[in-house]
Amino acid sequence: MASDTTRVGADALQQRSYKIVRLRHPGRWLSGVIVVVLLGLLVKAFADGQIQWDVVGKFLTAEVILRGFANTLLISFFAMIIGAGLGTLFAVMRLSHNPVTRFVAWLYVWIFRGTPVLLQLLIWFNIALVFPTLTIPGLFEARTVDVVTPFVAALLGLGINEGAYMTEVVRGGISSVDHGQTEAAQTLGMSRFQTLRRIILPQTMRLIIPPMGNSAIGMLKFSSLATAISFTEMLNAAQQVYFVNGAVIELLLVCAVWYLLGTTVLNIVQFYIERYYGRGVAHGASRPPFRFSFGLSRSASRPVNEEQS
């Protein structure tokens, strides 16, 4: 039946002398040419600039840079672990029925989300001025300055700050899960902790993975702030080198290459994690309701009457 209808439609178009005319989009071509020209000018500027590309290639795999990049990955990974753990804990506290618990969680978010990361790093690095010694009666006692090293200060500053943002992300994800899921779990005799672990959090993951991925990418870049407290991450290592040899732009380009590589890998990991937690969810193939015509892709066509053309 469908093939007969298609044949009739084609015969009707042929009898009425229709032809297919491609829509013209001069704005797409114009915007494409402008973008290509600007990219060409940018490439030419870097090619003609006073950049020693051989120095860039030399330090791209230098031991001091690779060791700094390893420290960057290390501090970013553990800070995200701390942030995710604190975010989940305080998100549950913010949704608690206990007003004291809710207030403590709100206070945590208010303080650490409301002050700059660099300020928090500096406070943690100088926390020995407030607490000269750290003591656990009968078990442990040490000077704070010996415990809170630049690595520990960077880990605390970045991780606790990230936890404040992750609290709101996780809270929003948990709140988006239908309350009927909780009621069904209680009907099956699950405890609150079992409901959270088996029912709520797995459904929440699909919603919070995209912002968590953005946070991980941001953490990789924010780790460069740790150079202010003398933690030897990649940017700090590059600064130590170009203070000696004067190759400032070259070492900064080396850092840019490694940061781009790191964020690219994180984007790929985020894609697969999103796909894993998105199993069983219907993804519609509908187009966005609005799109700028900046691309040069093949445009749609329309039949036009030959007599009118």
Structure report:
It is built from twelve helices and four strands; from the N terminus they run H-E-H-H-H-H-H-E-E-H-H-H-H-H-H-E. It is 69% helix and 6% strand. Mean pLDDT is 81; it is low at 284-309. The strands form two sheets. A two-stranded antiparallel sheet has the order 1-4. A two-stranded antiparallel sheet has the order 2-3. A hairpin with a 3-residue loop joins strand 2 (133-136) and strand 3. With 309 residues, the chain is mostly helical. The longest helix is centred in the first third of the chain and has 32 residues, at 63-94. 24% of the residues are buried. It has helices at residues 2-15, 26-48, 53-60, 63-94, 99-113, 117-125, 144-147, 150-176, 179-187, 192-222, 234-245, 248-277, and strands at residues 18-22, 133-136, 140-143, 301-305.
* Share in β-strands: 5-15%
Oligomer: single chain
H/E topology pattern? HEHHHHHEEHHHHHHE
User: Helix proportion of residues, in percent?
Assistant: 55-70%
The low-pLDDT segments are 284-309
Alpha-carbon distance between the two ends? 33 Å
Q: What structural category arises from helix and sheet content?
A: mainly alpha
Number of helices: 12
- Radius of gyration, CA atoms, in whole angstroms: 28 Å
Features of the shown structure:
309 residues; mainly alpha; two-stranded antiparallel ribbon; 4 strands
Summarize the structure in short.
This protein has 309 residues and is mainly alpha-helical. The chain is built from 12 helices and 4 strands; from the N terminus they run αβαααααββααααααβ.
